[in-house]
Amino acid sequence: MELTLRRKFKGLSYTIGDLSINGKFFCNTIEDTVRDLPSTCPETPRGRSCTCKEKVYAKTAIPAGKYKITFKYSPRFKRRMPYLHDVPHFLGILIHSGNTEADSAGCIIVGENTVKGKMLNSRVTFQRLSAILENEKEISIRIV
Fold first, then answer.
1. DSSP letter, residue 125
2. Rounded distance, CA 24 to CA 129, Å?
3. Which residue has the higher pLDDT, 42 or 91?
4. For 48, phi and psi rounded to 5 degrees?
5. Average pLDDT over residues 113-130
């Protein structure tokens, strides 16, 4: 199964996108600001936080690209969540519910963007998405 996140509005503090499943629109997304990051972070040891000066902690969207998704237990949310693997400059990137980019810290928040800069019905949207993804063996997301 392939998810596609098409970023359609890049603002100063947040980014709005459309999430599709196998080419069919599913919901809107909100993320942090898209910043121009180097392709790699050579000074950062694997498994540690990024030290690049271009990345602003908890205020930077993940780089465009294609990432594998599996379900992983989140201590913060106390449940299994869709987890993006091998995201340059980032650790612990999830897809989850929330209201604004302030709830993101680099993660992808799903919902309905009917109010400027906010996600509505996010918990319901996330539950629907999780139910669809839970039984899939191979999931990827392409961010453009």
1. H
2. 13
3. 91
4. -120, 165
5. 96
Q: Average pLDDT for residues 64-84, to the nearest whole number? A: 95
The one-letter amino acid code at 44 reads T
> Residue 55 has which token pair?
């990345």
**CB of 105 within 8 A of CB of 117?**
no
User: In this structure, which amino acid lies at residue 13?
Assistant: S
Confidence check: pLDDT of 57 > 80: yes
132 burial (CB, 10 Å; 0-12 / 13-18 / 19+) is middle
65-73, long-range: CB < 8 A, 24+ apart: 65/142, 65/143, 66/140, 66/141, 66/142, 66/143, 67/93, 67/140, 67/141, 67/143, 68/139, 68/140, 69/3, 69/95, 69/133, 69/139, 69/140, 69/141, 70/139, 71/133, 71/134
CB contact set of 125 (below 8 Å; sequence gap of 6+): 27, 97, 110, 111, 112, 119
- Tokens 């998405």 belong to residue: 129
Please choose, from the candidates 111, 139, 144, the residue with its C-alpha nearest in 3D space to the C-alpha of residue 3: 139
Whole-number CA gyration radius for the chain? 14
pTM (two decimals):
0.93
